[in-house]
Structure formats: C-alpha cells, structure tokens
Design a protein that fits this description.
By secondary structure, the chain is mainly α. 57% of the residues lie in helices and 0% in strands. It has 4 helices and no strands. α2 packs across α4. The longest helix has 14 residues. The radius of gyration is 12 Å and the shape is globular. The two termini are 16 Å apart. The mean pLDDT is 88.
C-alpha cells in the first residue's frame, strides 16, 4: 500500500508504474480511452477528473483505496 500525500506523489507513482509495465504514454492513453496529453499531465501531478484518474489507474493495473483518516 502506497500512501499518496501530495499531487506530485501520484504523478511519480503513475510514471513509475507505467515504466515498470513497459508501457508508453500512448499505450496507457489508449487503454484509458483518453489523450496522451492527459497521461502526460497526470504524470506531472496535474489535476484531472476522477473518472479519468480511475481509468488511468485501471490501465496501469492499480486500484484506489479510500480509508478513514486517523
């Protein structure tokens, strides 16, 4: 389980995971049904809609877990 505290954290996580899987940004964008520029922005830690974020996570075989703070 990786705790993400800041937006740059999730960008780094997405890029690292994509590279681990040997996928290009274009391949992730195709699987997530979004534009390559969206993947680039996500990897830079820029904001996006939740549905796009979840699609990128699914393409990278990751899941989002929401837990109670405290």
């Amino acid at each position: 389980l990786v705790a993400i505290k800041m937006t740059i954290d999730y960008g780094t996580l997405l890029r690292t995971r994509r590279e681990e899987l040997g996928l290009s940004q274009v391949a992730v964008a195709d699987m997530a049904m979004c534009h390559r520029t969206t993947v680039i922005k996500a990897e830079q830690g820029n904001g996006m809609t939740l549905d796009v974020f979840l699609s990128i996570l699914q393409a990278l075989k990751l899941k989002l877990e929401v837990v109670e703070d405290g």
